[in-house]
Amino acid sequence: MSHRVAVVAGDGVGPEVVAEAVKAVDALGVGVEWTELPWGSAWYHEHGRMMPEDWEEELRGFQAVLLGAIGDPSVPDHVSLWGSILELRQRLDLWANLRPCRLLPGIPCPLAGRGPEDIDILFVRENTEGEYAGVGGRSHRGLPGEVGIEVSVFTRAGCERVLRLAFECAAQRRGILTSATKSNASRFGYVLWDEVAAELATEFPSVRYERVLVDALAARMVRSPDSLDVVVASNLFADILTDLGAAIQGGMGMAASANIAPGTSEIGIFEPVHGSAPDIAGQGIANPAGAIWSAVLMLEHLGEPEAAARLLDALEAVCSEGPRTRDVGGTATAREVGDAVVASLRA
Ligand code: IPM
Ligand code: MN
Predict the structure, then answer these.
(1) Mean pLDDT of 152-173
(2) What is the DSSP string of 67-131?
């Protein structure tokens, strides 16, 4: 049976890295049927929107979206992103964003004296509410007293589902769950989050649950990343922490993500954590590892765990032996890395 996957390559380096991920998946022979959807900033200039109005209809029938990157200097970021990925995450209720942060052998680490055995963290990011709820407004525009209000929204149900998932992930891994909040300065949303986490902790006696202030956690990721197993955090906090995470796993080009609604049959969206990188777009030098790793997460979602494991093995072999792109110490192009992954799969 073949899997139906939509490809939204998007802007900047998106098409370059997604092409390598598609090539690698094809080499696995698992029967993925790809459909390219030309959404993104170019589409915006033609149609005045980032995606067609009936995007939900168009996505029906697909099991997954493989996404490259969205964002172009010619469109304000809040317009392009609220018209695409943020809209998709919220409207499809893809409430969990899983971001494995693991330093692969062969990839240089910016932390002195640290190696692959020290960096293996799974970030579980709340993906639909918090600081990304989209609630707020502007008034008194242009006047000296102009106001901009951005409201963070935390619901018990929203906290509970993502925290429960994080506990479950920790129970399957090394049994440590670190929840990052800021309940010393914030008095409402994060306090609710902490309360729900403490309640759930009693259901998972095998997991060591710890509550950490997000600022302290940022320092700890640098000082002792080996003390972390699963980290769960709000939408914004996990957004920031996973860029730091990407840096310690070798750079933005390495990091992968899965936008999913566990326990449902909802479509999943798989995308590298990096952006469209307009500064290097078109040169063929972007690192496709994050996109290929995102395809690994996609294969897991599609119920192809063996193919997923084979692809991750191949990616690891290429990271370890080369070729590597320049952001991770090599000189290769994206295509050379993708070709090497395919060669490793065939070996
Ligand atoms: C990410 C990105 C997005 C986010 C942007 C592009 C809106 O930074 O996926 O981490 O903040 O969620
Ligand atoms: Mn981000």
Answers:
(1) 98
(2) EEE---TTS-HHHHHHTTHHHHHHHTT--EEEEEEE--TTS--SSTT--GGG-EEEEEEE-SSEE
For the residues 325-335, what does the mean pLDDT come to? 98
| Average pLDDT estimate for 70-74 | 98
CA 23 to ligand 1 center in whole angstroms = 25
* Tens-place pLDDT, residues 246-264: 999 999 999 999 999 999 9
pTM higher than 0.90, yes or no? yes
Residue bearing the CA closest to ligand 1, atom 5: 81
b or e along 20-47 (b: 16 or more beta carbons within 10 Å of the residue's beta carbon)?
Answer: bbbbbbebbebebeeeebebbbebbeee
What separation in Å is there between the alpha carbon of 227 and the centre of ligand 2?
A: 23
pLDDT value, residue 105: 98
Alpha helices in the chain (DSSP H): 14-28, 41-47, 55-59, 77-82, 85-91, 156-172, 189-201, 214-223, 235-248, 289-301, 305-321, 334-346
Q: Take atom 3 of ligand 1 and give the residue whose Cα is closest.
A: 239
Judge whether 233 and 123 are in contact, CB under 8 Å: yes
Residue 182 CA to residue 214 CA, distance in Å, equals 6
Give the atom of ligand 1 at the shortest distance from the alpha carbon of 97: 9
